Every structure is written in structure tokens, then in C-alpha cells.
Amino acid sequence: MPAPKLEFEHISKVYSTVKEGVRSHAIRDFSLAIPPQRFVCLLGPSGCGKSTLLNMAAGFVEPSSGRILVDGQPVGRPGADRGIVFQEYALFPWFTVRENVEIGPKARGLPAGERRAIAERFIGMVGLQEHLHKYPRELSGGMKQRAAIARTLANEPKIILMDEPFGALDAQTREVLQDQLLEIWASTRNTIIFVTHSINEAVVLADDIAVLASHPGRLVHVVRNPLPRPRLRAALEVVELERQIYEQRYPVSDPQTGPEMAHASR
Amino acid sequence: MPVADADRSATTGMEEVARRQLQWRGRSGKPLALAIVVLVWQAVGLLNQAMPFYNALLFPAPWDLLVAGWRLAQSGVLWWDIVASTARVLIGTLVAAPIAILLGIAVARIRLLEVGVEPIIELLRPVPTLALLPMIILWFGIGETSKILFIAYSCFFVIFTTTLIGVRNVDPILLHAGASLGFNRLQVYRFIILRAVLPDIMLGLRLGLSVGFLVIVAAEFIAADTGLGYLINYSRTWFRVADMLVGAIIIGLLGVTVNYALVALERRMFRWRATDT
């Protein structure tokens, strides 16, 4: 087993309300080690803290206790080693597609020719070469997200953090982008942490699925996904694995019902 | 509603109008409406000539204004007055702009300044700038300095506020994206904040200029020997109502022209913004 690329060590997040002094756990004792080049999904209902964990890895949020390590080093401020893809795309509206994708390399001080070549390579990879000079407002949601993915890839991060990146897209576009992401990942082999509440999405995409429960947010178990790729969404074994995850989504000691885990959302 | 809030909502109303001017919609009817008003006015004037029912000296008709305007233009005085007033407004705005923009960005970004500076500005804002004009003249004399400083002071607030609000409205997710792309502090300003706030700065400049054209006349009433305000006030002492109206109309036209020139510039500069949807 190689040394983990990204490691969550006993992460807790506690919010205390000023009025009553009550401390409530948003996340309790979450630990997870992610080996390099793995595609890992954090799967759970809203309120389980999966996005908070991702934001901690990105450096936007600090855990109340515990540490997050990248290559054995604790993470500090946000940095280019951990690229992030947001559900809301977060493209810079004043830059064209190419300028958006170029901006990471530009910030690193790469000369114009070099960063242009990088940008065009990754824009080609996501299939936006026809739209180099368009502004984000001229793109559809799916195209925006592809541009955002290209922007993250162009920065050559060690780890890619994806926060429900396809959550705002229609079902068809979502499937196209899922397939495209897998294709890209097959060639770049980045370590990907992908947050989703869709069991189907997790089963189609991930090597490992970390199943979380909410109130407080915590890890239930990690499901190794043994299915070979490409995985057909309607294939029997895919549906079977979905059903297993759905049935085991709560710890045995805590048989609460959770309406928000989207078994049927595809 | 606290005073500062009431005042801010007044500014946002102004901003709303200015924002809407970026769209060209529904403007085709305006020249026609204007033409009808002028024609009716002229007709009333002609009627009054045939059988007088008011003093035509006090309320000249459009034709009289054209004649007066032509005469003023021929004598050359008018051009100098236009140049003098416009220059004062432009220079005053240009003096205020860098200070207002830098301060607006700084107050929005630096907590200490937000606490220390913003309340002072909010306290000064409700004071009508015209109330301070006599004092400014006492301090800086009746030369150009006092008029330029007066304009600068008057348009400072609106440029400051639009910049401040613009910086505060920068989408935090873009700042997160920048941080994760490895932007350093300077790059956060260069690639995100300044880009995002530039449209607001342009809006502030446009509103600042219109404030300038609004208050310049008063400054020139009190202390000037050129400018359209001076022309109006001087014409009053000689009972030349047509000249007074010519001065007033030209001030209005100047304001409108500068405004639409800037609107055109904005539309060119910010192609990335959807303005027509």
C-alpha cells in the first residue's frame, strides 16, 4: 500500500452557539486515507459535512480538531497543489475560456507561449476547442463546468477536489461529463476526491466510496468498488452495488431514517 | 430607517437609473416626445405674440432661445463658458477619482479602515456639499482651486460608495477559486478584485460627473467670471432670460452627452457582461 496522498486524521468540526453555549458536532472524528491516483467519492446526505471536509482539504475551512495531510505534510492555506472544481463553476466572467484556463499557469509566471500550449491542450481534452474565445456567459452549464475542469487540470494539481461538480446540470449532461471525467482521469491519473449525494454517481465513478451519515457528520464505512470500467449505469451489478450501499448507509447502532440520500436521483 | 441607510438607498436608486442606461431599450419614443413639447411651447409663444397673455420677456419661446444661443456663440463667449465649466467638472472628478477609488477598495478590504473611516464618510455624506461652498471659498479663495476642490468633494462620495459596494459584492467563490489556483495577494487584486470592480468604478465616475454638472453652476454663481453658471447669473442682472435658459439647457446637454459617451465606453469595455438580457 503506497503512502497516502491525502489523509484526514480524526477531523472534528464543532459549532458552539453563543446563546446557550451548546456545542454541536458538524463532523465527528472523521478519518480517511486516500492513496495516490485514486478516485474517491465522499457520499452522503446533506448535512453530513462532506462539502465541509472538502473545503478543509482545500484550506478554506479549519477543522476544530484533527489534521489533514497532503503527502504527509499538514495543509495550510489554499494552494495550487489542491485544485478545486465547484458546483457553481466559479469561472472568472471577465476572462474568455482560454484566459480562464491560462490563468493558473500565468499566476505561476509561465511564459505566454508555454501557458497557451498548456491551456489549449486541456481545453482540447474537455472538448471546448471551438469555444476558446467565448466568455463564460456565452456557455451552457455543461460547457462552463468543462472549462472549469480544464482550468483546474491546467494547474497540474496533485489532488483534485470536486464539490458536487455536476449537481447543477441536467441528467443527460451530467452523464456525458461523468464519462468525460473518467476518460480524462484515465489519462492524467490525478488523485480525485469527489463529493456527491448521488449513490449512482458514486458507483459509476469511484474506486472507493466513503459513505457518510449526518447529525453529526461521520464516516459509516468505506466501500471498495470492485466493478470494472466502463460501468454501464443500468448494468445489473451497478444497480446491485447501489442497493447495497443504500441499505447500509447508516451505522448499525443508529437506525435513523434519512430522506435525503438520493437513491433514485439520476 | 437609520440616516445612512436612507441615504444609501437614495444612491442605489440613482445607480439603478444609471445601470439601466446601459441598455438601449425603449429609447425610440423619446426624441418624438421632446419634439412635441418644443412645438407646443413654440405654438404657445406664437399665440402669446398674437394676443399677449404673459410677459414674453420672462418666458421666451424656443425660437428666441435659438436666436440668443446663436448670438452668444457668435460673440465667442459661449464657447469659453462651455470649456470653463466642462474643464472644472472633468478636472474635479479626476482629482476625486483616484482618492475615492483607492479609499473605497481599502475600506472594503481592510477591517481597521472599515471601522475607522467609513463612519466618518457616512457622517459627512448627508451634508449638502453646497452648504460647504462658502467655506471652501474662504479657505481656497475665488480662483480655480476652490471650484475644482468643490467639485472633487461633491463627487467623491458617489465614486467612493460605488467602488466600496463593488468590492464588497465580489463573489467570494471567485476569491476561493483564485486562492486554489495559487494567486498571491497582488494577483488576487489584479485578476479578480480590480476586474470585478471596474464596472462599478465606471458607474461611479459616470455618476460623479453628473453630480459635478449638477453643482458646478452654483459654484459659478458665487465665485467665477467664466463658465455657464456665471453666464446664467450675469444674464440675470441684465434681465436676459433667453440667455439664462440657453446656459441651463447647455449644462443639461453637456451632462447628457458626457453620460452617454461613458455609457458607450462601458459597453465596449465590458463585453463579458450581459447587458442586453
Percent in strands of chain B: under 5%
The largest chain-to-chain contact, stated as pair and per-chain residue counts, equals: A-B, 26 and 21 residues
**What class, by secondary structure content of chain B?**
mainly alpha
Count of distinct strands of chain B: 0
Global geometry of chain B: elongated
What kind of oligomer do you see?
heterodimer
Low-confidence regions of chain A: none
What is the ordering of alpha helices and beta strands of chain A? EEEHEEEHHHEHEHEEH
Largest sheet of chain B: none
What value does the Rg of chain B take, in angstroms?
22 Å
General description of the model:
The complex is a heterodimer of chains A (266) and B (277). Chain A has 266 residues and is an alpha/beta fold. Chain A has helices at residues 50-58, 97-107, 112-125, 141-154, 171-188, 199-205, 236-247, and strands spanning 6-16, 23-34, 39-43, 65-70, 73-74, 82-85, 159-163, 191-196, 208-213, 218-224. A six-stranded mixed β-sheet of chain A has the order 6-7-8-3-9-10, sandwiched between helices. Chain A has a four-stranded antiparallel β-sheet with strand order 2-1-4-5, with helices on one face. In chain A, helix 3 (112-125) packs across helix 4 and helix 6 crosses helix 7. The mean pLDDT of chain A is 90. Residues 1-10 of chain B have low confidence and may be disordered.
Helix-strand layout with pairing:
The complex is a heterodimer of chains A (266) and B (277).
Chain A: E1 6-16, E2 23-34, E3 39-43, H1 50-58, E4 65-70, E5 73-74, E6 82-85, H2 97-107, H3 112-125, H4 141-154, E7 159-163, H5 171-188, E8 191-196, H6 199-205, E9 208-213, E10 218-224, H7 236-247
Parallel strand pairs in A: 3-8, 3-9, 6-7, 7-8
Antiparallel strand pairs in A: 1-2, 1-4, 4-5, 9-10
Chain B: H1 3-20, H2 29-50, H3 62-75, H4 77-109, H5 111-116, H6 118-124, H7 129-140, H8 144-168, H9 172-180, H10 185-222, H11 228-237, H12 241-269
Helix pairs in contact in B: 1-10, 3-12, 4-8, 4-10, 4-11, 7-8, 7-10, 8-10, 9-10, 10-11, 10-12, 11-12
